[in-house]
Amino acid sequence: MRTTWVVGNWKMNGDLASNAALLESVVKSIPLSDSAKVAVCVPFPYLAQVQSALSNSAVVLGAQDVSQFEEGAYTGEVSAKMLKEFGVSLVLVGHSERRSLFGETDVVVAKKAKAALDAGLMPVVCVGETLAEREAGQAQAVVLRQFSVVANEVGAEGLKQSILAYEPVWAIGTGKTATPEQAQEVHSWLREALLELGAESVSMLYGGSVKVANAAEIFSQADVDGGLIGGASLVASEFLSIAEAAR
């Protein structure tokens, strides 16, 4: 059975005071038993603050990245084991900003997903094409290539403990959004690939300028199981409205 998720990605935003105010609003508005699971993926320095703020709430704590290495001489890296100590349950891997700005390859993303799974974390594996790739008719090939490298690394059982997030790179932070039909088309390609592996129950999220105005229509698509929310996750009223749309 697929689970509906609304996952907020704060990116490199926040401070102690604004975090506290945002989380207070979110926590008191998300019921302990909910038909949609809600999570926030926060910058590493705020994990302790957010862990405390989310205690005894239904909101799940997530991180935005994880090292592919368990431990050692990797200055600046944060391991899955470290994240677990702060109560992190899920972690983004392969976000388009990590791929494009920091050079993460499909192989590195796959190894990060494996490291998360090995530590008992749920990876949210992000895939998506650039505008140039879409216009060249390569969207399907790109998305399925990114997916297959992860699938080969973690196997069907690993996929069943993961979430997939389709985020068209051309619609992230640009104000552009894939039409519901475009989102569904890509999700259907991924669902078919999952079906072939016996992992069709994996939840798949759409990420790419999801807003209150378009959330319900996007979430109503057959293979869309919620959203990976960027800027709107920083505004309590918007984030909560999107979570309501997912319900």
UniProtKB/TrEMBL annotation:
<dbReference type="InterPro" id="IPR022896">
    <property type="entry name" value="TrioseP_Isoase_bac/euk"/>
</dbReference>
<dbReference type="GO" id="GO:0019563">
    <property type="term" value="P:glycerol catabolic process"/>
</dbReference>
<comment type="function">
    <text>Involved in the gluconeogenesis. Catalyzes stereospecifically the conversion of dihydroxyacetone phosphate (DHAP) to D-glyceraldehyde-3-phosphate (G3P).</text>
</comment>
<feature type="binding site">
    <location>
        <position position="173"/>
    </location>
    <ligand>
        <name>substrate</name>
    </ligand>
</feature>
<comment type="similarity">
    <text>Belongs to the triosephosphate isomerase family.</text>
</comment>
<dbReference type="InterPro" id="IPR000652">
    <property type="entry name" value="Triosephosphate_isomerase"/>
</dbReference>
<dbReference type="GO" id="GO:0005829">
    <property type="term" value="C:cytosol"/>
</dbReference>
<comment type="subunit">
    <text>Homodimer.</text>
</comment>
<dbReference type="InterPro" id="IPR013785">
    <property type="entry name" value="Aldolase_TIM"/>
</dbReference>
<comment type="pathway">
    <text>Carbohydrate metabolism; erythritol degradation.</text>
</comment>
<feature type="binding site">
    <location>
        <position position="209"/>
    </location>
    <ligand>
        <name>substrate</name>
    </ligand>
</feature>
<feature type="active site" description="Electrophile">
    <location>
        <position position="95"/>
    </location>
</feature>
<feature type="binding site">
    <location>
        <begin position="9"/>
        <end position="11"/>
    </location>
    <ligand>
        <name>substrate</name>
    </ligand>
</feature>
<feature type="binding site">
    <location>
        <begin position="230"/>
        <end position="231"/>
    </location>
    <ligand>
        <name>substrate</name>
    </ligand>
</feature>
<dbReference type="GO" id="GO:0006096">
    <property type="term" value="P:glycolytic process"/>
</dbReference>
<dbReference type="InterPro" id="IPR035990">
    <property type="entry name" value="TIM_sf"/>
</dbReference>
<feature type="active site" description="Proton acceptor">
    <location>
        <position position="167"/>
    </location>
</feature>
<keyword id="KW-0324">Glycolysis</keyword>
<dbReference type="InterPro" id="IPR020861">
    <property type="entry name" value="Triosephosphate_isomerase_AS"/>
</dbReference>
<keyword id="KW-0312">Gluconeogenesis</keyword>
<keyword id="KW-0963">Cytoplasm</keyword>
<dbReference type="GO" id="GO:0046166">
    <property type="term" value="P:glyceraldehyde-3-phosphate biosynthetic process"/>
</dbReference>
<keyword id="KW-0413">Isomerase</keyword>
<dbReference type="Pfam" id="PF00121">
    <property type="entry name" value="TIM"/>
</dbReference>
<protein>
    <recommendedName>
        <fullName>Triosephosphate isomerase</fullName>
        <ecNumber>5.3.1.1</ecNumber>
    </recommendedName>
</protein>
<dbReference type="GO" id="GO:0004807">
    <property type="term" value="F:triose-phosphate isomerase activity"/>
</dbReference>
<dbReference type="GO" id="GO:0006094">
    <property type="term" value="P:gluconeogenesis"/>
</dbReference>
<comment type="pathway">
    <text>Carbohydrate biosynthesis; gluconeogenesis.</text>
</comment>
